[in-house]
Amino acid sequence: MEMRMSERALTWVEVDLDAIRQNVRVLRAHLGDGIHLAAVVKANAYGHGAPAVAQAALAAGAEHLAVVSVQEGVELRQAGLTAPIVILGYTPEWEAETVVENGLAPTVTRPEVVLALSQAAVTRGTRVRVHIKVDTGLHRFGAEPREALALRDLIASLPGIELEGLSTHFASADEADKTFTREQFALYQQIAHQMPEVRLRHAANSSAVLDLPETALTMVRIGIALYGLYPSLDVSRDVPLRPALSLKSRLARLHGLETGDPVSYGCTWRAQRPSRVGLVPCGYAHGLRRALSNTGMMLVRGRRVPIRGRICMDQCVVDVTDVPEAELHDEVVIIGRQRDGEITADEVATQVGTISYEILTGIPPRVPRVYLQDGAQMEPPGI
Ligand SMILES: *Cc1c(COP(=O)(O)O)cnc(C)c1O
Q1: Which residues are catalytic?
Q2: How far apart are the C-alpha atoms of 113 and 106, rounded to whole Å?
Q3: CATH number of 245-343
Q4: Does any ligand 1 atom lie closer than 6 A to the CB of residue 222?
C-alpha cells in the first residue's frame, strides 16, 4: 500500500494552499480594484515552498511574483511558472544573461548593471524589463534619488531595456507610529512624479497594505500576510488572515519516569512526580529552536504539553502525563492547530525573542512539505 507523505514522514510541514488563496482574496478585496498584487515568495516562500505557493497565489488573483535573487527566479521558471517575476534584491552585472534568458525583471541601482542588461537583451534579440529602487530612508538597498533619475535617463537611451517599475521599501511600517513611513512615502512620490511613464509603482509591504492602503499605488508586495500572519502586534487585524503553515510530527516512543529521573542532554529537567513522556522526532535541525528547551509547548490530542529537557538536533521530549490517552504515533503539532488547541508561529517567535518570519524561514528543506488543496493532498508543481 502506498502511503501518503504525511503518513510516511515522521516530521513534516503541512501547507494549506486554500489558506494562501483565501488570504490573497481578502487582501485583494481590502485593496480594491486596479492594484497589482505581487506575491513575495522569496526564501522558498517564507519556508512554505515557492512553486506551490506561487501557483496558488496566481490562481487566486496575484499578477506578479517577487523573489530576492536571480537564482530564486530561475527556480520558479524551472518549476514551470510563467508569470512576471520581479527580483527585489541586488542583481550584479554578471547575472545579466541569466536574467534575460529567464525573462526576469531585476531591480537596478547601478548604471553598469543597466548597460549589461541592455547588451544581453540586444544580443538575444529581446527586451528586458527593469525596476528602479529608490532609497527613501531605509538605507539598505536602493539608489539615491538623483541616481534614480539618472538611471531612468540611461534606460531611456538604451535599446532592449524598458523601465517597468519604480519601488521603495519602508523601514518601520509595522510600527504604530507611521511618521517615518509617511515621510518616506512623500519622498517616493516626489521622485515618482518625475517619472510619469512608469507603470508599476510599488512601496507597500504587508504592514503598509494593512495599515496604510493609501500607499498601495499601482502594485503592492505582500509577503507575511500571504502566509496568514500579521507583521507585528501593532498592525491592524481588521483583514482576517489564516495561517497556512503547520509543523507536525508523531510520538515515536512513550515511556514512564520515576520522580527524579532526568530527561535529555545535561539532565536539565527531572520528573517532579511519576510521569509519562513522549519522544518527538523533531529537533533544532528541523527548525525547532533550541531556546524552547524546557519552555516550549506542543499539542497532543488537542492539549498543550510542555517540552522537557533540552531540544536535541533531531529529537525532543514532551510531557504527556496529563494526556493519558496519548498513544504511539499520535500526531504532535509544533506549529498549527489541533482540535481546540493552537500554537502560532507568533507565539513561538515571542518565546525565543524573534519574529514569525525567522521561525517560518528557519524550517530547513530536509523537512518535507505536504500541500493541501480543497482539503486534500496534492503534488507541488514542477517536482
Ligand atoms: C520581503 C519584502 C517584502 C515583503 O514584506 P512583508 O513584510 O513580508 O510583507 C516587500 N518588499 C521587499 C523589498 C521585501 O524585501
Answers
A1: 42, 265
A2: 10
A3: 2.40.37.10
A4: yes
